[in-house]
Each structure stands twice: as structure tokens, then as C-alpha cells.
Amino acid sequence: DIQMTQSPSVLSASVGDRVTLNCKASQNINKYLNWYQQKLGEAPKLLIYNTNNLQTGIPSRFSGSGSGTDFTLTISSLQPEDFATYFCFQHNSWPYTFGAGTKLELK
Amino acid sequence: QIQLVQSGPELKKPGESVKISCKASGYTFTDYAMHWVKQAPGKGLKWMGWINTYTGKPTYADDFKGRFVFSLEASASTANLQISNLKNEDTATYFCAKGAAISPFAYWGQGTLVTVSS
After folding, report:
1. Which of A76, A79, B96, B118 could staple B22 via S-S, CB 3.0–4.6 A?
2. For B87-106, how does the pLDDT look when each residue is reduced to its tens digit (9 = 90+)?
3. Residues of chain A contacting B46 with CB distance shorter than 8 Å
4. pLDDT of B11 over the 90 cut
């Protein structure tokens, strides 16, 4: 199985900050990496699909990059509603796997 | 608009069974796979597998072979997840998520909390 390692596990930041979340795959997953935001009691929300494609309706402050095994999600200017947990997810090969998440908290 | 609406929370005893439904609307149900994802309390997400909504063929991740069954009521645009012989570790929120060729897992159900407790 492909292991997805996210770092950091917790990130403290302030409104207006630029933050970068990392996700590393244990083997090549090509471009098939999605990023999700999840708030307590809610379903995950798709932010970025296939590494760098912004899902419809998602603000442009979210962006994704990477290839192969190393991927990043960048939030250019944090807004109050962005404090949540973020998961990466590979859908290159079965079994599909999620990272353990990065909790973005208010400093 | 595309929606996945799941059935309500369940409280079960160990050894019992539970069936969760996921009703889709806003698209042609048989055109896209349906996936299932488990999230234990305070934990991350685990992909359970998927069902081909055209053929009805399920595929299970290794950890979900045996007690877990994916099924369809295609005429009702509904996918089901049945768990038999429930164990305490099955306590979790279960999500359905729509497959897609371009942006898979863009649409999720709201989740169904299954609590297993004696």
C-alpha cells in the first residue's frame, strides 16, 4: 500500500499568513493527489484535485503543486474560515490512501 | 445540483448488523462509481472500497473484506453499506463519495455515525 505522510501534523498560524502543507507518498503517484479540508462534524471538502487543479468554488488563495512523491498545498493568505484539518489523498492505485492530516490552528 | 444524502445515525450492540444508505441525485447514478470511506472518532480517513454502479461489482480494501458488503438499489439511485457482526472498532462515521474520471471524490455524503456499544 502507498503510505501518505503529511507534515507538519499541527501548524499554528495567524490570519493573513502564507502557509505550506506537505504530503509525501511512499512511491510515485504521478499527479493523482487531492487535498481536502475537513471541519469538525462535516464531510471532507475537495480543494485541489490531481495535484494543482482548483475545484470549482474554492477560493484562489488555495493552490497545489508537486509531482511524483512530493506535494504541497499552499494557502496564500489565511482567512478565519481556513482553520481546519487538511488531508491529502492518493488515487493513483488501489488501495487509495489518505494522509493522517495537518491540523491548522490559530496561533 | 449533485447531492449524496445518507441515512441517519445508528446505535448497535456488538454482533448486530447495520445497513447504511447513500441516495444520489443530480446526476446519472450508473455513470459513476460510489466509494465508501471510514473515519473513526478523532482519527483520519480510510478508503474502504468502491462499487461499480453500472455492473454492481464491489471491490473491497483488504481491511474491509468479509463483514462488509456494498450493494445497490440502482432504480432508487442508492448505494448501501452493510456491516455484519459489528465490533467496537466499527464505531465510526461512514461516508459515501462519488467517483469521477476527472475530479474523483468531489462529492461526499454528510456521513453516518455508527456507534457500537453494549
Report:
1. B96
2. 999 999 999 999 987 788 99
3. 98
4. yes
Phi, psi of B106 (to 5 degrees): -80, -25
Q: Does B30 touch chain A (CB under 8 A)?
A: no
Closest by alpha carbon to A74, among A24, A20, A37, A33?
Answer: A20
Interface of A with B in 21-40 (CB under 8 A): 34, 36
| Cβ separation A46–B105 shorter than 8 A | yes
Which residue out of B103, B107, B110, B113 would a mutagenesis test of the A interface target, given it has the greatest number of A Cβ atoms within 10 Å? B103
CB contact under 8 A, A44 and B45: yes
Residues contacting residue A96 through CB under 8 Å, at least 6 positions apart: A89, A90, B35, B47
pLDDT (tens digit per residue) in A73-89: 999 999 999 999 999 99
Q: Return the percentage of chain B with pLDDT > 70, whole number.
A: 100
For B54, what's the count of Cα atoms within 13 Å in the CB-facing half-sphere?
5
Report the residue of chain B nearest A98, measured CA to CA. Answer: B45
Grid coordinates representing B45 are: 480517513
Round to whole Å and give the CA distance between B78 and B22.
Answer: 5
